[in-house]
Amino acid sequence: MDTLDYGIVGNCRSAALISKDGAIEWLCLPQFNSSSVFASILDKEKGGIFSVTPKYLERTTQHYIPRTNILVTRFHCLDGVFEVHDFMPRYRIDKNDVYYTPPDLVRYFKHIVGDPEITLLYKPKLEYGIPETKNVIEHDYIKASTVKGPYDSLYMYSSIDLTAFDGSKTVKLMNDEFCLISYNQKLLHQDVRRSMLKLERTKVYWLNWAERTTSFKVFQEEIIRSALTLKMLSFDKSGAILAALTTSLPETIGEERNWDYRFCWIRDASMVVKIMTSLGHTRMARHYLNFIIDILPEKDEKMQIMYGIRGEKKLTEQTLGHLSGYENSYPVRIGNAAYKQKQNDIYGILLDVIYQHFELYTTSLEHSEELWTIVRNVIKVVANNWQKPDRGIWEIRSENKHFTFSKVLCWAAVDRAVKIAGLLKRDMYVEKWSKLRDKIDEDIHKNAWSETKQAFTQAYGSEDLDASVLLMESYGFISATDQRFVNTVLAIQKELEHNGLMFRYRNQDDFGTPKSAFTICSFWLINSLYKIGRKKEAIHKFKTLISYSNHLGLFSEDLDFETKRMLGNFPQAYSHLALIETAITISDSEITDEEEIMEFIN
């Protein structure tokens, strides 16, 4: 069963998916949201691939070099053993935080023993495979270029005979070799020694980055792997953070819930930044807040729910009709029409991050004033809109409702603004905004609570339950010991949990009734169960849930309720940030002795 058994390698400029058998099946260059050069994950015939096929293969294994984003695929063959080390170069080139992050992917072939025979198929399909792509050997590289339409090109350098990459003949691997795929023609001579140097420098970068991550008593390696993955989903050029690396991986096989997630959702990115800051990675937070300042330059600038990774505001959605889709799950989409939606929850999540920044760090006067201006403008928007319906966190395309989660996050926006005003000694705003905060609080308690369900529901006047409501405690709206929250958690668990996993909601949406489990919601339930005192149950569920990751500890957006196979876009920032948050909750509990907590977990 295919369960998205891919590894991800990246350098905060772009990233690639590499299958369990060592094939590059997804890569966009020169950056994350560019058109694909390899996309066989979306169409085996038309998408493009770079595969390595040993003639006498026995088995393959795959792992990351510990605490790095260098992926090792080891091929055990009857005639020998070799490894392919895949990575995208990333390392510091001077003392001023300047990094070498070219639009390159290096495949370092490490010879272990014997003389294994292999077949190499290098078959890029530029521009999503829409025009024809031709490969021509020129000098010391293979140049791929489009035949018609918009011009695009790609260069591949290798120490292996360049005539051997069309899959028509085998070559014997007797020494270390390299392949380098680049969007740009290289100015320096490329050889095995240079590729090894890039490998070692990239390894040192990731090891140092992982070492700066805050340590916790338990689940440390799971936290590190998720943090490394989230780092790869950040775009250094702007500070944006992607929701996921891919487009159109379906939430349910054969259906049309297929979306392009290669964009920066304010909600998702802000959640990631808060978690990464708690892990000690403050550079990501500063970089992201600069991104926010850049996309909101004017006081009347309306905040969108999402942007392109360079701050693009128009993200027109279109269908690539020539691609069959992942396991024939059509359509394949690029762009995302959700950018036009109104979602009032984004304000609270953004101001939560800005408050964290003001609380923890000294910032320049210029940035403090810019962020304070954003805070005041956001509260103006919240004051004018919190009583209006919106599309909600799940981006319902057909209907506006008074979603409880949106109301709670409007409350959170004003609450954080009050606290920021207090830190900045702006007493006039503290008094004014405190009244608005209390008004929203009263409205939620009055309209979101169902006496029938004995729980806070999905929307005002509704009896449907929604997993997002579990976050009301995390954002400080209600205490974990409040009986109303305890009742809400248990009601949501009873109604939305199925086979140990969680629905987002069960009521119909634009595309019918949801059929897969939304991974982040299962983490939210575990976190909430732990906080209301059901610790053993929560820890058992957490251990079970993380066992559903793929062989490298990576998660997508969704899980199938029955088979537990992963579905949806991959790897998913939402899933990994929730894993970290839940692991931290467990590790930071009142069980402070490591032996005691390990006994509790076991």
Automatic annotation (TrEMBL):
GO terms for biological process: carbohydrate metabolic process. One of its GO terms (molecular function) is hydrolase activity, hydrolyzing O-glycosyl compounds. Signal peptide: none annotated. It holds the Pfam family TREH_N. InterPro entries: 6-hairpin_glycosidase_sf (IPR008928), 6hp_glycosidase-like_sf (IPR012341), GH15-like (IPR011613), Trehalase-like_N (IPR045582). Residues 8-147 form the Trehalase-like N-terminal domain. Transmembrane segments: none annotated. It comes from the Bacteria. Residues 220-583 form the GH15-like domain. This is GH15 family glucan-1,4-alpha-glucosidase. It comes from Mangrovibacterium diazotrophicum.
